[in-house]
């Protein structure tokens, strides 16, 4: 197990370096001399700009700049300065990342909470109208991008007033007790989480169905049936757990979809997460903030994949020895 | 772009043995076999027809659209879609539909009321604003319209009083083509790099094929935004179009190159490649004549199923306000106008026309892709062994 983890960790490192190289390259490619444009902005003091120049060695050759960029990143978690917000980039990102992860986790609950039972249902009732209906729905749902499903849900929310139409907290948030705060947060979370969580649902559901069908054909399931166990026990106690295992690997891939999906949902539902910050940063030409958040999102994705590997290794010991 | 692995489609017809006996296969060319398989899939044929209709609409957009996309009407902001009538209040039947002219009754909330005492017949092939059909033929004819100064809004009007129906058609010219141009570039780069590096291998191969890995490490939309940040935020329409295509191609080539490289790796070990080498054929000729054509059927499917991702890339970018800028229309920036809560709840015709257009397009490509996948499946072409 430790060697397995170490190997996976070592595989992640070149990727992360690749991402920093890419963000650095993009930083260099940005139109115009970035700090010169900033110096025309009276709100930014010459001192801040000089400090940035010094910190990132902006007057030195590019390889020294990259070395400094990496050093600042790794040693000081210094992603640079956000000029539009007058704060270090890391401070801005930390808050946004928390909100995005909250949204992505809620979305993951939606995805897996629906995919596993629905997929299992379709598998148990293979070729029935349930199965056909679910796969037709899944196929149609694949053609609805999150921009559309998000706007559609927003439209319904605006028409029915059942759920809040955006933001993260109600205006009277401060006056609520703990339970009230939790409920308020959940109500705000519901729609964006639904939008993001439903994106990967269709394919996860199909995979769950396929897995369970495969497992149900295995000998030990036949044995369980031959022992005279009723079908419910066979499916839920013996087959289901083994059918869920392969889905754990997919968690990593799903995370990428969840992060990208959150981006759009955050914009539509004014959720104060990483996506919103990135878009605002792009519109205000806050280059360090844009690339800082791209870097952050990639790190989250790599770590998520790593977690999925670990989870899988725990769930299925055969993996480690491959 | 979108990270959605697609599930198998619901099979509409139960899989049946397509070829009864092996003798029949030898009398049909691969193309005939393909058509035979393809026609059996009703959804795929439906997808193909839908796409043909959509692209025809894009080509004939200025003719079908009654108005130019940027023509504003200061009298009719947020005009609701007009109903077509066939029977007038007196009970007379009109073979051609007509609309009632409207007037604003509630300027604060953009409320309009039909004036039932007057009718405005729809006329075919009316003279309207001048345009060039296919970009060359100058003409003033439009498919339909009403007598000026009246205006007809089949799908309503937007906050500047522009006709949503016309904008939808003009928008399709951008939204439907951006994917094709983007994939054409990705496809060329992917074929070249995948073919050459899959064949020769070596350390360059290792580095080049590290790129897809790297690009997959960054969540798609974040990568998209990061690349967009190299270009200035506001750009003229043509340049934005170009920028989007370049970004899409940059992200998209990697996946295709990886698929092609994998296939080339396995094909180059085939006996006929060894035979070609033994006959003294040059490497590049082998790649171009013998290896790449063999990857084609998979590539066609891969391309078809990835086009929706490219189209959605433009939609998302324009939706976020980073893509095609007003007054030019694209499906993405039409959705952008619907983002506002008040617009969304009071004027739903801002959301549904572009929304349904996007949905139908993506669905048609998915249908077509699945049909192609089945029809081009070599296991079937080889005589139905796989059933």
UniProtKB/TrEMBL annotation, chain A:
Tagged with keyword Zinc: no
InterPro entries per UniProt: BPD_transp_1_N, MetI-like, MetI-like_sf
Membrane topology, record value: Multi-pass membrane protein
Main location: membrane
Cellular component GO terms, alphabetical: plasma membrane
Cleaved signal peptide residues: none
Name of this protein: ABC transporter permease
